[in-house]
Amino acid sequence: MSTSSALTATIAGIGFWTDGLPDWDAARAFAREGTRPESAPARPSPQLLAPNERRRAPGSVAVALEVAMAACRDAGIAPETLPSVFASTHGDLGITDYMCDTLAADPTAISPTKFHNSVHNAAAGYWTIGANCTEATTALSAYDATFAQGLMEAMMQLATGSPAVLLVAYDTASAGLLGTVTHSEGLLGAALVLVRDGDGPRISASLRDGADLESPGPLGTHAQHNAMAQMLPLFDALASGGVRALLRAGPHRSLALEIAHAPQPEPTDG
């Protein structure tokens, strides 16, 4: 049973990166045909950062900026004009494990750079600086409902006045002792530029009681062990032309998405 009025938005641009599938074209081909690029980079390389910063950036920042910029390019919208929502289940688990281990063993040895990158809004901060963006940005976490809550936040911003909003979702691999209680594998990130109207896929979202999810699709299976796999039902549907997706939105709650894909142009004779 639906318990809320539907929020609506048009997807103007998409960015995607995960291990072995370094962009949305590769992810879409994998979801539709099962094909993968013959070679794929082991790590994102966001051109928004200067070369030295690019090399030093943690995986969480690298994947978030890579997909954010790709979504903006796909939408044809200048990144500095967009308010943004950055959603991550855990932030950077490798850095968090390092912080915990070092604080327990030798607190004075904490790396200032690692400490700087440990905050949950680190990726959002790098984005606003690199893109020269002074629009509002939000960083949030809601455990396994993080993507659904981030999507609702972005759509609420559209509904209350913003003409376009950037949503970025990402998570990293767990490490060390922390990985024994909070498991996550690989890098996974995706971004959407959402607008009120346009020619892209149109989504309608409503909260519902119950949290029973459907079996994962190809992308959901490929990256199922990353903490942000929770977002992949939507991206599987977008890649394959599906018209529905169901996301976990909290205890005993789900976010039901209806998707109206843009009509494809009729082929013309040569």
TrEMBL record:
Region annotated Disordered, chain positions: 32-55
InterPro entries cross-referenced by the UniProt entry: Ketoacyl_synth_N, Thiolase-like
Residue intervals passing through the bilayer: none
UniProt-recorded name of the protein: Beta-ketoacyl synthase-like N-terminal domain-containing protein
Domain Beta-ketoacyl synthase-like N-terminal: 40-242
Domain of life, per lineage: Bacteria
Origin organism lineage: Bacteria, Pseudomonadati, Pseudomonadota, Gammaproteobacteria, Lysobacterales
